[in-house]
Amino acid sequence: MISASCRAQEEFLAIVSELVDEHDQHRYGGLLLSSVSGIISAELSGHFTTGNWRTSADELVDILVTIITDGRPRA
């Protein structure tokens, strides 16, 4: 099971490396993984159905990816 998890993480990082420079893939991969985990948790607990946030999980993930690909700090 651990080897399957490692393979999945490697595949995820390969996808992330298509969005950011290879040397940044772990940092931005961690940001994406942890952020999306929180977004999913909020979605499943019903936070986005109350109307208070006026957004959806899908929209937040789209914004996050856009920020990472277009708005990341330049070295």
Helices and strands, with pairings:
Layout (H helix, E strand, L loop, with lengths): L1 H16 L7 H20 L12 H14 L5
Task: Report a brief summary of the structure.
The chain is mainly alpha-helical and 75 residues long. Helices cover 67% and strands 0% of the residues. The protein has one domain (2-70).
- Helix count from the secondary structure assignment: 3
User: Any idea what the shape is?
Assistant: flat
Class of secondary structure makeup: mainly alpha
DSSP E strands, number: 0
Using only C-alpha atoms, the radius of gyration works out to 14 Å
N-end to C-end Cα span: 38 Å
Strand content range = under 5%
Low-confidence stretches: none
| Order of SSEs | HHH
Overall mean pLDDT stands at: 88
Helicity range: 55-70%
3D structure, described in words:
It is a single chain. The chain has one domain (2-70). 67% of the residues lie in helices and 0% in strands. The protein has three helices and no strands. Helix 1 crosses helix 2 and helix 2 (25-44) runs antiparallel to helix 3 (57-70). The model has no long low-confidence stretch (mean pLDDT 88).
Any descriptors?
single chain, 75 residues, mainly alpha, 0% strand, flat
